[in-house]
Amino acid sequence: MRDDLNIIPVALAILLHVIIAALMIVGLDFSRAQQPAIPLAMTATLVTEADMQTVTQKAPEPVIDEPPVDEPEPEPEPEPEPESEPETPPVPDPAEQERQRLEEEKRQQDIREEQERVRQIQLREEQERIRKEQEAERIRQQKAEAERKKREEAEKEKQREEAERKRKEEVERQRLENERKKREAEEAERKRRLDAELAEEAKRLAAQQSGEMARYIYAIQQKIQRNWVRPPSAQPGIECVALVTQLPGGDVVDVVIDRCNGDAAVRRSIEAAIYKATPLPQPQNRALFDRNLRIVVKPEQ
Asked: Which terminus, N or C, of the chain has the lesser number of Cβ atoms within 10 Å?
């Protein structure tokens, strides 16, 4: 088959340009400072002669009866780039490898140091957080303890006040009770004494009415008369009234001449006779005893 469209020469030209471009890129890559070669990834389609014939067969044939028409030639499909052959990697430089190894170690060391620094910072922050939490907890517990003690003290104070109030109430109640008992005892004692005095007075009146009082006073008068010393100025018919105070045993403690028809010497003689008569005679009936006696003294009878 005749190649009327010149497809084969065009495809070969494109392939040649691709190879030249690849060689230039490889040459530029080797000119760099021992950098590892980076293979270029190219995508190419292999065009065979059969494909070219298929394209040729699809071309339109001229029509005899019609005049020739200038039709635009179809653009040729791009030829696939040939796969590049793997290049032999350059031999690495030991010094460069050592430098890279040291740099990598230094980088790893820096990373570890940075990680350690960050860890220490986080550790300090965690310790500070724990310390603050513990301090806050301690303060909270102190406040809670203070509040508890305050409540306990307030409760104790309330109890003390209540106890003091009850104590005062009890003291006041006891005082009122004692006063009541005292009044009752005094009233009972007063009543007892009054009853006793009334009873004694009744006995005394009964004794007087029975003649025992007359005999008691007569015995006292007789003893006073026996102890009387008649003064020279005494006149016949002497009569004196003496107020005598005696003790329960009859001892005379006081004598007052209330009324007397004699002179001062007679009055003194009557008073002396009463003192000499101590102890005065005691009544057989104790109801007749009286501390204060009113005795009529007639020494001449």
From this structure: N
Q: Are 204 and 282 part of one and the same domain? A: no
User: Residue 41: inside a domain, yes or no?
Assistant: no
Mean pLDDT score, 103-126 = 94
Q: Are 10 and 73 in contact (CB under 8 A)?
A: no
User: With contact defined as beta carbons under 8 Å apart, do 245 and 253 qualify?
Assistant: yes
Going by the DSSP 8-state scheme, the letter that residue 256 receives in this structure is E
Domain count, the chain: 2
Q: What's residue 129's pLDDT?
A: 94
Domain contains 25: no
- Per-residue pLDDT tens for 196-238? 888 877 777 776 666 788 888 889 989 998 998 888 888 888 8
Give the pLDDT band (50/70/90) at residue 144: very high
Q: Is 30 within a domain?
A: no
Q: DSSP secondary-structure letter at 62?
A: P
Q: pLDDT (tens digit, 9 = 90+) per residue, 162-202?
A: 999 999 999 999 999 999 999 999 999 999 988 888 887 77
Cis amide prior to 236 (ω within 30 degrees): no
pLDDT value of position 131: 94
Domain interval for residue 172: 101-210
Tokens of 295: 């005795």
pLDDT of 35 reads 45
List CB contacts of 229: < 8 A, sequence separation 6 or more.
269, 272, 273
- Give the side-chain half-sphere CA count within 13 A for 251: 3
Cα–Cα distance between 183 and 191 in angstroms, integer?
Answer: 12
